[in-house]
Amino acid sequence: MTEALASFDEIYSPRIVARMNDYDVRIAHARGDHVWHVHDDTDEFFLVLEGRLDVAMRDADGNENTVVLHKGDTFVVPKGTEHKPSSPGGSVLMFEPSTTSTTGDRHEGEIPDHVDSTTGHELG
Description:
This protein has one helix spanning 2-6; strands at 15-20, 23-33, 37-38, 44-58, 64-70, 74-77, 82-97, 106-107, 121-122. The protein is mainly beta. Strands 1, 2, 4, 5, 6, 7 and 9 form a seven-stranded mixed sheet that branches. The protein has a two-stranded antiparallel ribbon with strand order 3-8. Strand 4 (44-58) and strand 5 (64-70) form a beta hairpin.
């Protein structure tokens, strides 16, 4: 994974490292805030490869809580859960259906310039 991560610099712009059935294994660099978004029909799996990833989530009443993940930690955001990743710097591995957009089925506000709204890019 180290070599694959070293092959690109963009943050929140995942690269597809493998495919299994209708799922992608994606890696991405993370730094700063992503955007509040939701995946209506799929869970989102995170494995922190380096650094730290914070995942803020909102419940149906608008209450927020944040899960702080460090290298080696995994976390699954349940489908339909509004969430916003952020990081002081790190890299993550994600496992999700190939058609899953990085900014979800719905997102809040404008997408920041440093967030790539994509279903992933081929590595290399």
